[in-house]
Amino acid sequence: MMNETIINAKKAVRSLIGLSDAKRTELLLKLADAISSSADGLLAANALDLASMDPANPLYDRLKLTGDRLDGIAADMRKVAALPSPLGRVLAERTLPNGLKLRKVSVPFGVIGVVYEARPNVTFDVFSLCFRSGNVTLLKGGRDADNSNRAAVALIKRVLAAEGIDTDAVNLLPATHEAVGELLGATGYVDLVIPRGSRRLIDFVRDNAKVPCIETGAGVVNTYFDACGDLQKGIRIVTNGKTRRVSVCNALDCLIVHSSRLADLPELVGGMPQVTLYADDRAFAALEGRFPSGKLLHADSDSFGTEFMDYKMAVRTVDSLDEAIAHIDRYGSGHSEAIVTEDKASAARFQAEIDAACVYVNAPTSFTDGAQFGLGAEIGISTQKLGARGPMGLEEITSYKWLIEGEGQTRP
């Protein structure tokens, strides 16, 4: 028998259709205010989750909520509320020779399920985007953040109820493996499922989903410091890309450096002595004695192509732009890649030939984020090619339908 929560989510779809855009906006603004006024309760629930995780775990930072982070979540929700409605947009319009009038119009998917791990901010981000785009939100969080997620969903439901809106517009499934299976098999009830988390989670959802799935999140991210790279720009870009937040999917995993710039490598990585470097032989020789010895190790076969999500980074030496692109082709995940160069031809080639959702020139991959892209927030970073790609905002979580008007025409 289908999970009752999933059935209720499907029933709630029609209740959202009649809501005006003004009502959706008003609800999100009131919820943003409620997040700030309910901060103590949300932080207390989060503290219960944090107590069960080792602070040394890199995921601890992703799990942790603070007053400032809650303020940031509320601010992002207000940004989503301020964006133009993605619904009812006329994407195409034409009149056929027989007089039939066709319009292609944007509409909600219906029920969007999101499977995610220890990131309680996702609960609010996903709801804000789904609600603004007319979609019902069906959440499946991880055990690590269960108290935080339950407190967040309870708050959302209270605000929905106060505004007279169906509280089944958002639901949280149990933090169990069985609930994942029910969600992935809910054909006819769930219109789209999006996984956010580790490579293992994403692979599991993709391989087992019977409902449509958008692959997101896993990021093996590289930055190439070219022969013509500016050293001061490179220092800022590499340090920010690696150390801003190591546990997120846009964090730098491998620095690729042109062999002619090995003399600059110690300075290029000198601002992050807390990072363990897995360097190939030439990079190791350039760094030996000029980087903390306990943090400098020889790279092995597993060093490249690993999403570290920790204060760890691989270093690879290449002799050409071609070799750098070949390395990314082999080890990248299609998420975000960057080049540091002052040579316009090299920059143009890198942009044209790198196969990734986001390709940067002289900027860190840490900018791959829905809020940074002006989307208000994101429901995920899509690394696939069919449909949405890169940060997914309001437009990416709508579908469309054709509206046809006639005056009694019949087909011969």
What would you say this structure looks like, in words?
- The chain is of the alpha/beta class.
- It is built from 14 helices and 16 strands.
- The chain has helices at residues 4-17, 21-37, 39-50, 59-63, 67-82, 121-132, 146-162, 177-184, 199-208, 231-243, 265-268, 281-287, 321-331, 344-353; strands at residues 90-95, 101-108, 111-116, 136-140, 170-172, 192-196, 221-225, 252-258, 276-279, 296-298, 312-318, 336-340, 358-361, 381-382, 390-391, 398-405.
- The strands form 4 sheets. Strands 10-9-11-8-7-12-13 form a 7-stranded parallel sheet, sandwiched between helices. Strands 5-4-3-6 form a 4-stranded parallel sheet, sandwiched between helices. A 3-stranded antiparallel sheet has the order 1-2-16, with no helix packed on it.
- Strand 7 (221-225), helix 10 (231-243) and strand 8 (252-258) form a beta-alpha-beta unit.
- The chain starts with a helix and ends in a 7-residue tail after the last strand.
- The mean pLDDT is 94.
